[in-house]
Fold this sequence. Notes:
Layout: H1 4-31, H2 35-60, H3 64-67, H4 70-95, H5 104-132
Helix pairs in contact: 1-2, 2-4, 4-5
Amino acid sequence: MKSLYLRIWVIVALTLALGAAITRLAWGITTASQGGSIAIIILLMVAILVTYALLLYLAIKPSLEKLKSLAVAILATVIAGGGIIGSIIHFIRFVSSPRVSSPLSPLIASLLMASGVVICGLILWVVWRVRKGKKV
Length: 136
């Protein structure tokens, strides 16, 4: 990604998507009535902002060495951790909700939760391996 125009295009696209997502989530905070909903929304907002910061950092000065830096490892770990915490809160609130109408809904939620835990573990394993200097 050596072209300046391509970098600007990526930054503009990311900024527009981020603006829409954060606006929608902020709107969700104003209508949320329970603390769990607010916690999920705040975790989502933090994860989106951290992901945006990482992508912006890589779009401005792309380098494979930056991917191995401690800052990127911390950002990836924070994103994965926030995502798994948010999904656990959502899972607990969803499965115990009386609005679950289909018997397949808890099954689907359980499968999504399991995949999130596996993906989080995979991200942490990759970050650990890259930080130790081993091949992934």
